Amino acid sequence: MRMNARIELDAGTKTFASGLLPDLIAALRRSRKGDLVAVISGDPGIGPELETWCRFTRNSLIDTAVKDGRTRWVLRYGEAPEAVGEDRPVGSRLWLYTNFDCNLSCDYCCVRSSPKAPRRALGVERVRRIAVEAAELGVSEIFLTGGEPFMLPDIGEIIAACAAAAPTTVLTNGMLFARRRLATLHSLPRERVSLQISLDSPTPERHESHRGKGTWARSWKGIEQARAEGFRVRLAATVSTDGEAEEFRSFLDAHHVSEENRVIRRIALRGSATQGIALAKADLVPEVTITAEGVYWHPVGADDNDLLVSREIFPLADSFAAVRRAIDREYDHERRLARIFNCA
Ligand code: SF4
Fold first, then answer.
1. H/E element holding 190?
2. By the 8 A CB rule, do 11 and 44 touch?
3. Contact 292, 121 (CB under 8 A)
4. What are the percentages of helix, strand and coil residues in the chain, rounded to 5?
5. Nearest to residue 143, comparing CAs of 115, 111, 174, 165?
6. What phi-psi label fits residue 214: left (phi over 0), alpha (psi between -120 and 50 degrees) or beta?
7. Rounded to the nearest whole angstrom, what is the distance from the C-alpha of residue 177 to the centroid of ligand 1?
């Protein structure tokens, strides 16, 4: 999917050696911090220089796409957001994308899930092996996400396998707790399983503008069902502005939802989203994420090749090592650039 940019800069025949740089600087002068600028050229050789220039100047190259022999690079103007959670060791939290299909098709879904999305399930056998190896590696928390995990007929077995290895949180829209799925929920161990249920706003309007008509009340009902079943429930809101975040915080305060049971995050410009915070690899503290396609740097880009670390999942120890090597490469690159900048 094409990433929208505020400025489209057609480089023509220009390169960094022949006049592209002043055009680039002029484009950034017309931009505000956080804006996206696209550079288009038929010369793919611009790419490595653009990446280096972005690193020097603390901008982020966040997307590269080739069409009809021309490359379009998208960079974000400004420094990466401050990293959070850097003290969390890589591999202490493990994310599994159980599947990619979903009963909803939210307009900002970071992995393009929908009822029409192919399932791409990890499958219970792979999850069992992952869970056993994760326990051996000392993983302390497992997160199951999708798509909507409760779309899967064997989600109960999947959750149980993970919960046997580590405390497990299931991310869900909470809309499917009826009949067989309610029985599945009922069967899960309360002391090892938590639910993180999405609710984007205190009232239906904004939530439903992203997620579809009638979704707010069904998610709220799911929250109440999960609580009634005795689960720890974390409420997760995806918002566009600080004002929306503040409004949701007041709502959670009024409902006596504690800090550890709330997540409020901004829309990420990934997947189906056409606006939101643009996130490059360097912006994201890595959290090992496994999908049916391989191992990814972070759950927010688990459908994007720029965050793919390895196609091989097993042995899990090798996957973790691959992520750590990828981190070392990132840091090495920064150190090399830092040396180039030495003044004496
Ligand atoms: S954001 Fe969640 S609920 Fe919405 S389509 Fe994506 S996976 Fe489904």
1. none
2. no
3. yes
4. 40, 20, 40
5. 165
6. left
7. 16
Q: At what angle are helices 204-211 and 215-228 packed, to 10 degrees?
A: 110
Contact 131, 106 (CB under 8 A): no
Nearest-CA residue for atom 7 of ligand 1: 147
The pTM assigned to this predicted structure is 0.77
For residue 247, the tally of other CB atoms under 10 A from its CB is 16
- Side-chain half-sphere exposure of 147, counting CA atoms within 13 A: 25
- pLDDT per residue rounded down to tens, the chain (344 residues): 667 788 899 999 999 889 898 898 888 888 877 778 899 999 998 988 888 888 778 788 777 888 889 999 988 887 655 444 456 677 899 999 999 999 999 999 999 999 999 999 999 999 999 999 999 999 999 999 999 999 999 999 999 999 999 999 999 999 999 999 999 999 999 999 999 999 999 999 999 999 999 999 999 999 999 999 999 999 999 999 989 999 999 999 999 999 899 999 999 999 999 988 888 887 788 899 999 999 999 999 999 999 999 999 999 999 999 998 988 887 666 555 544 444 55
Q: Which residues, judged by CB distance below 6 Å to any ligand atom, belong to the binding site of ligand 1?
A: 102, 104-106, 109, 113-114, 146-148, 173
User: Which token pair is 232?
Assistant: 């720890």
**For residue 199, which of 263, 270, 111 has the smallest C-alpha distance?**
263
Measure 209 CA to ligand 1 centroid, in angstroms: 13
Q: How many other CB atoms are there within 10 angstroms of residue 130's CB atom? A: 23
